[in-house]
Amino acid sequence: MIKIFKYLTPKDWAIIGASLIFIIAQVWLDLKLPDYMTEITMLVQTPGSAMRDVYIAGGYMILCTLGSLIAAIIVGFFAARVGTSFSQRLRSLLFNKVESFSMEEINRFSTSSLITRSTNDIIQIQMLLVLALQLVIKAPIMATWAITKIAGKGFEWSMATGIAVIVILVLVTFLIAFVIPKFKKMQALIDDVTRVTRENLTGLRVVRAYNAEEYQKTKFETANKALTDAQMFTNRAMATMMPVLMATLNVLSLAIYWIGAYLIEAAQAIDKLIVFSNMVVFSMYAMQVIISFIMVVIIFIMLPRASVSAKRINEVLDTNPSIVDGKEAAGKPDLVGEVTFNNVSFKYPDAADYVLDDITFTAKQGETLAFIGSTGSGKSTLINLIPRLFDATKGEVLVDGVNVKDYKLEALYSKIGYVPQKAVLFKGTVESNVAYGDNRSDDDLSIDEVKKAIQIAQGTDFVEKMQDSYSAAITQGGTNVSGGQKQRLAIARAICRKPEIYIFDDSFSALDYKTDRALRSKLKQETAGVTSIIVAQRIGTIMDADQILVLDQGKIVGKGNHKELLNSCSVYREIAMSQLSEEELDDE
Amino acid sequence: MMSKQTPKTRNRQFADRMNGPPGMGSNEKAKNFKKTWSQLLRYCKSYLPVILTALILASLSAVFVVIGPDKIKDMTNEIQNGLPALINGVPIVGAIDMSIIISIGTMLIFLYAGSAIFGLIESYIMATITAKISKNMRSDISRKINKIPFKYFDKTSYGDVISRVTNDVDAIGQTLNQSLDQLVRAITLFAGSMIMMLITNWIMALTAIGASVIGFVLMIAIMSKSQKYFAEQQQGLGNINGHIEEIYSGHNIVKAYNGGKNAKKTFEHFNHSLYDSGWKSQFLSGLMMPLMMFIGNFGYVAVCVVGAILAMNGTIPFAVIIAFMIYIRLFTQPLTQMAQSMQQLQRTAAASERVFEFLAEEELTDESQKLQKLENIQGNVEFKHVHFGYEPDKPVINDFSAKIDAGQKIAIVGPTGAGKTTIVNLLMRFYEIDNGEICIDNTPTYQVTRENVHEQFCMVLQDTWLFEGTIKENIIYSKQGITDEEVITVCKTVGIHHFIRTLPNGYNTILNDQTNLSAGQKQLLTIARAMIQNAPLLILDEATSSVDTRTEKIVQEAMDKLTHGRTSFVIAHRLSTIRNADMILVMKDGDIIENGNHTELLKKGGFYAELYNSQFEQHDQ
Question: Which CATH number fits domain A2-317: 1.20.1560.10, 3.90.1150.10, 1.40.20.10, 1.10.1040.10?
Answer without folding.
Answer: 1.20.1560.10
